[in-house]
Amino acid sequence: MSNIPSDLRYTKSHEWVRLRENGSAEIGISEHAQSALGDLVFVEVPDVGRAVKAGEACAVVESVKAASDVYSPVSGKVTASNSALASQPELLNQDPYGAGWLFRVQTAAAVDDAALMSAADYAKYLADEAH
Amino acid sequence: MGLKTALYDTHVQQGAKIVDFGGWEMPLHYGSQIEEHHAVRRDAGMFDVSHMGVVDLKGARVREFLRSLLANDVGRLKSPGKALYSCMLLPGGGVIDDLIVYFMSDTWFRIVVNAGTRGKDLEWIRGHAQPFAVNVAERDDLAMIAIQGPNAREKTLAASGLGPAGRASAMSLAPFFGAQFGSWFIARTGYTGEDGFEVMLPAVDAAKAWNALRGQDIQPAGLGARDTLRLEAGMNLYGNDMDENHHPLESGLAWTVAFEPVERDFIGRRALEGFRGAGGQELVGLLLEERGVLRGHQKIMPAGEVTSGTFSPTLNRSIALARVPKTAAPSVQVEIRGKLHTASVVKPPFVRHGKALIPI
Questions:
Q1: Is residue A13 situated within a structural domain?
Q2: Minimal CA separation from B295 to chain A, in Å
Q3: CB A110 within 8 A of CB A4
Q4: Is residue A17 part of a domain?
Q5: Domain that holds residue A17
């Protein structure tokens, strides 16, 4: 069974979001997503300062097998992106919820919770997807 | 449900991620494709290649038949056990398949064809074998394991159950030679650019043999590593780098076409003679000069297309095979997700025997 931390929110396209009370959101891809992609060899993260909309493609993760877009689950301004991934894309395989984070967004308005899944809902979503 | 080799259950038990490949359920990797790749370059790895078709051709006129069927000339095979790589062509020069042919005896040759093309190959071969009274028999009773890497031969023989004399004899097999040792047909061939063996053995013994090989610390490796290894070695993949719409001369395979002797009239010869010396296209190697990954079907500016691309774990860069006009410059632009990236044109292979062969 895939590791799905309970303190994060998830999307149908397999991103996770770590929401903080100050409106900051940290974003990455789930354990399930990195496992399905295989060994990551190239990661492209958004520039700091870029304005992103929820659902907008703003990062690319590329494995030996294929390239995949990463969609921002929230709207706002990019405040940081994980530059370590340029030289160590394997961090994303090894620690998808920690050292493998992709970028952080400062949200302006309240995040639309309805568009995001809880850990329990995401686990159910993965189980349904597998059948 | 897809087709399964005799080793399917073993792969699943050993943690393989299974994917469909030409109708077969095959291991993609057993955890990390890149680690499997490095194991082959640095030590020894093994692949289940039982999905490939082993076909025995027997008859008094079998050599004459193959000299007409194949673009390379089996007339070159003088010693029993010697192998030859060849294309099998349509009359128009398009490639039906690429294969390895082994000279077993004057009345017996063995060929190994690709998994995805087995059906059409068999139909084509049977249709042309009839006038030569050659018997065509698929060897579904055999499994095939490729063991590759600098330590592959020694480790394989340690797991083989052969006595000292048999091991010494198998160890002295020259490249591109095979011989029968007990129930194993051992050949010094492969698809990785490393030394090693390909072993054909009774399918009923395959799981036991696989586990004995694992006992010698040979890393199981999947189709993912097989693809990055063959591409580093500059070896073509049928369906990507050549197919029925592309002839050998524009697929980097001119070296496999035997135009001499001139009186040998193989299928496709006349068409290829028309293409010889003409302009047209060629298959070249590409080394991406920027970050990113080259992939099949990406467009090349000013003209051409990537036929196979990947990330090279040995070079830590992206490499590709590409079909471009013969006048191509020393570098080209490749379109990756809407942006142009510079790639140098290089001569494959990129890597052989663990070492980079192109300047990085």
A1: yes
A2: 8
A3: no
A4: yes
A5: 9-108
Two tokens, residue B342: 């510079």
Within-domain flag for A96:
yes
Structural domain total, chain A: 1
- Taking the CA of residue A62 and the nearest CA in chain B, the distance in Å comes to 8
B299-335 exposure pattern, b = at least 16 Cβ within 10 A, e = fewer = ebeeebebbbbbbbbbbebbbbbbbbeeebeeebebe
Domain CATH for A26? 2.40.50.100
pLDDT tens digits, A65-96 = 888 999 999 999 999 999 999 999 999 999 99
- Residue A122 resides in a domain: no
Map residue A60 onto helix, strand or coil: strand
pLDDT in tens, B267-299: 999 999 999 988 899 999 999 999 899 999 999
| Chain A residue with the nearest C-alpha to that of B18 | A36
Give SS3 for A104. Answer: strand
Task: Provide the CB-side half-sphere exposure for B134 (13 A, CA).
Answer: 27
Tell me, what's the pLDDT at A130? 79
A1 pLDDT more than 70 = no
Asked if B291 and A41 come within 8 Å (Cβ–Cβ), the reply is: no
- 240-299 in B: which are within 8 Å (CB) of A? 291-293, 295
Supply φ then ψ for residue B75, to 5 degrees: -60, -20
Q: What pLDDT was estimated at residue B327?
A: 79
> 3-class secondary structure for chain B?
CCECCCCHHHHHHCCCEEEEECCEEEEEECCCHHHHHHHHHHCCEEEECCCCEEEEEECCCHHHHHHHHECCCHHHCCCCCEEEEEEEECCCCCEEEEEEEEEEECCEEEEEECCCCHHHHHHHHHHHHHHHCCEEEECCCEEEEEEECCCHHHHHHHCCCCCHHHHHHHHCCCCCEEEEECCEEEECCCCCCCCEEEEEEEHHHHHHHHHHHHCCCCEECCHHHHHHHHHHCCCCCECCCECCCCCHHHCCCHHHCCCCCCCCCCCCHHHHHHHCCCCCEEEEEEEECCCCCCCCCCEEECCCEEEEEEEECCCCEEEEEEEEECCCCCEEEEEECCEEEEEEEECCCCEECCEECCCC
Predicted TM-score (pTM) of the model is: 0.92
How many Cβ pairs within 8 Å bridge chains A and B? Answer: 35
B258: which 2 tokens?
């035997």
**Taking CA atoms, what residue in A is nearest to B310?**
A64
